[in-house]
Amino acid sequence: MMNYLQRSPNLSRQRGMGMLGILLIFILILILIFCGDLAFIFISENCIDESIFTCLMGMLGEDEEEEAQEGSVTATGVISGEYGGENKSVTVTLTFPLEGGTVTGGFSGDCDGNIKGSYAGGGGTISGTGKGSCAFVIPASGSFSGTVNTANKTVPIHGKGSALGIDGEGDLTLTY
Q1: Number of helices and strands (H, E) in the chain?
Q2: Closest C-alpha among 175, 135, 171 to residue 154
Q3: What digits encode the pLDDT tens for the residues 70-103?
Q4: pTM over cut 0.85
Q5: With 0-12 CB in 10 A as exposed, 13-18 as middle and 19+ as buried, what is 69?
Q6: Which helix (H) or strand (E) holds 41?
């Protein structure tokens, strides 16, 4: 019986989780936070002005991309400026029917995302919102409003945007 007691491990010497285990748990938590951030950006970018449930169900059932309505035009413009000592630029694209209706589009460059809005038609007002990301993980959002000048084929808009708590606003003229 004495041999049996001598062979048993000494439980008082066992310690808690080692530093490697704590590091692995910390890395797992960081990965989950990163994935949550990417999911938030993806959902907000693709579900502008829709409930999350409706949008996700639409994504699951969506087989084909929406095509532009007949009589639609695509207006583009570039926003550029200096931030943090570096030149940054974003290309904005808006597609809308000249007789009025739904505005779709996006922005790409140093920030990427989708735009949804509406156009009154006949040279009236155009407005919308955009959501996306900068540097892949920083949520970005904005809104715009303006008018469509059918004679000059321009769309002068005024917009406001924000990314990483930094707000900005300005004017941009898109052409089609």
Answers
A1: 3, 8
A2: 175
A3: 789 999 999 888 877 888 899 999 999 999 999 9
A4: no
A5: middle
A6: helix 19-46
